[in-house]
C-alpha cells in the first residue's frame, strides 16, 4: 500500500521561508516524476513545481526564483524549499508521486499560511 507522508507546513510571515517534505513508501515500483501542487479556497488545484527522476525541474511562473524543488531518490522523498513567501502563496500544498506501472498518488495535504 502506497503511503505519502507530508510535513513542513505552517504559519509564516510574508518574506519568510518554509520547507515541505513528502516521503513515499509501500511500493516496489520505481518513482518517475515527483511534484507539488497547491489549492487555495475557491481555486482549482495548480502545479507549483515538478521534478523528473533525472532532476529536470518545472515551476509555475508565480514561484520561479523563490521556490526550489529537489528529491532524494534513495529516500523516495521530495522537498519544496519556499523562500520570500507571499500572502498569495497561502494554500493547501499536496505532493504527487508518479510511479512506473501504477500511476500517480497524492499526499494528504499540508496547510501553508502566509500572513501579511
Structure write-up:
With 116 residues, the chain is an all-beta fold. The protein has no helices and eleven strands. The chain has strands spanning 3-7, 10-13, 18-25, 31-39, 46-51, 57-59, 67-72, 77-82, 91-99, 103-106, 110-115. The strands form two sheets. Strands 2, 4, 5, 6, 9, 10 and 11 form a seven-stranded mixed β-sheet that branches. A four-stranded antiparallel β-sheet has the order 1-3-8-7, with no helix packed on it. It is globular. The protein starts with a strand and ends with a strand. The mean pLDDT is 96.
Features:
57% strand; 116 residues; globular; 4-stranded antiparallel sheet; mainly beta; 7-stranded mixed sheet
What's the helix and strand layout?
Layout lengths: L2 E5 L2 E4 L4 E8 L5 E9 L6 E6 L5 E3 L7 E6 L4 E6 L8 E9 L3 E4 L3 E6 L1
Parallel strand pairs: 2-11
Antiparallel strand pairs: 1-3, 3-8, 4-5, 4-9, 5-6, 7-8, 9-10, 9-11
Amino acid at each position: 500500500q502506497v503511503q505519502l507522508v507530508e510535513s513542513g507546513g505552517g504559519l509564516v510571515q510574508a518574506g519568510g521561508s518554509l520547507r515541505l517534505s513528502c516521503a513515499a513508501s509501500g511500493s516496489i515500483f520505481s518513482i518517475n516524476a515527483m511534484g507539488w501542487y497547491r489549492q487555495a479556497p475557491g481555486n482549482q488545484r495548480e502545479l507549483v513545481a515538478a521534478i523528473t527522476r533525472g532532476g529536470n525541474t518545472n515551476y509555475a511562473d508565480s514561484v520561479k526564483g523563490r521556490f526550489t524543488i529537489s528529491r532524494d531518490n534513495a529516500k523516495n522523498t521530495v522537498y519544496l524549499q519556499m523562500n520570500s513567501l507571499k500572502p498569495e502563496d497561502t494554500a493547501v500544498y499536496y505532493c504527487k508521486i508518479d510511479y512506473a506501472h501504477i500511476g500517480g498518488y497524492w499526499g494528504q495535504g499540508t496547510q501553508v499560511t502566509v500572513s501579511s
